[in-house]
């Protein structure tokens, strides 16, 4: 009967052990306990209109589009998040090394010479290759790889979270800058109006139909309007520097034109069913990936209690003469197998408890992220609807205040109105105009919040944000049992 070579026996044993170890992947996804509602509380039954990849173009500002595209390329926070993806991918490769044999080649030469009469030099040459492999019988090494893979997916969703936050910050800050510019224009207009009233009162004082108190009160209104200008100018500059930071540039390198909020469009967006939001929100997907990673950490911590089986093999050539090094008579090899069973390692229970605790924390974080997504969408929906309603009402208030102001100006020139009425009408108009800008800003920022609450758009590659869907059917759930 022909004998089976030792190397063949080793390979057969390795294959059988790997086949048996496949039974270690018995985890299933736990019940997360998320009660996803069937509809939104503030939903008006509109058809779902998900954000486009470049949803910010819907506002109709080419400058805003340019700023956001620059931020996507040059923002340091986004670059740092991409660097964390590289680290996570490297960790997958590091952990994956445990699933393949470790191979090593060595070469050695030596020369020995004894002292005394008749001494001669004796040389030796050796070249060898060695391999070692830990049989992943209990699935510990594969669990560490799956944990690293889930962490790499989490890093990608984390980058999407950062990028979405940067984009929405650029949009909100740009709108705030435009609102401040509009308020500044209104403030200058109010100064001119107050000056016109002041001149009219001065003319009445000159002919004796007004008194010094009337002039002093109007002077106060004029000075108050002038005093608002430096604060608004500071707000404009502060918003410019904030955008510069988001673009990753010094403020001196950023020049923003801005404009009027009233010139922008309001893009259409409507949510689908609440459950669909969970698949679009990168923060929810990140939390899910973190949950998968820590579940595999639990699997690895459990497997650490079980024996570890290591296989080693070495073979090569050894000779005292280089010319005969690779002869058949110079061949050598060795095979070995070892089993290590932890008997007293006080750190193992602690490691398991630590991994279990982290899993449960991430499970709660996942549930909270899901609930938070529902809350964010509901808040954004009501804000979009109510700020639009408030803007319509405030526009009517400004129109009425403007009509009253025009009437009181005419009556003042005719001397048919007292200064107290003039002062009250002025303040009402100035306040109404400023409030209209604030409401309009709130409406645009509410739209941005809705885009953000829905998870933004799609990645430039055309794939869903964060890349391919996360497959966790066999990796999530152990700690929940």
UniProtKB/TrEMBL annotation:
The keyword Magnesium does not apply. Residues 1-24 form the signal peptide. One of its GO terms (cellular component) is plasma membrane. It is a lipid-anchor. One of its GO terms (molecular function) is efflux transmembrane transporter activity. It holds the Pfam family OEP. Its main location: membrane. Transmembrane segments: none annotated. Belongs to the outer membrane factor (OMF) (TC 1.B.17) family. This is RND transporter. It comes from Methylopila turkensis.
